[in-house]
């Protein structure tokens, strides 16, 4: 599907399916990966993950806030991407992306982000996106810099993990900056 807006060069975005539970459950067992993408949560049972996936599958976007699965063009689930703090009045939103460890550094996160930005900037009229990146996540910092994001700030000692506090970097990209990148 070349003309499908939710498809990129390597991945496509789709709703989370109830049948995705097992891949997400296995990913929950990767504590270091969880630390890089979000936080390490309490253990969840298989039944709990099944219920979470079923709930996600039944969700509809609320005010442009959405969680989508990232799958390869061959149909393999490799992670997720979500938007939050979508503000239509100001035209701003935030997003987060998480790729399962075995799929890191294959260009999947970059492609998923580009698909999401294309939709929010070109279809929904948003004009600015912000990403919060943990300073210790050097791969994510480099990814956002490669994508043309500008580091707009650094919040000191915002993240506590592995027994210590870390900074959180704020990256931003405007629609004009995005348009210059896709030319």
From TrEMBL:
Protein name: GNAT family N-acetyltransferase
Organism: Paenibacillus chondroitinus
InterPro entries assigned to the protein according to its UniProt record, in alphabetical order: Acyl_CoA_acyltransferase, GNAT_dom
Residue ranges annotated for the N-acetyltransferase domain, each copy included: 11-176
SUPFAM superfamilies tied to this protein: Acyl-CoA N-acyltransferases (Nat)
Any Pfam family the entry gives: Acetyltransf_3
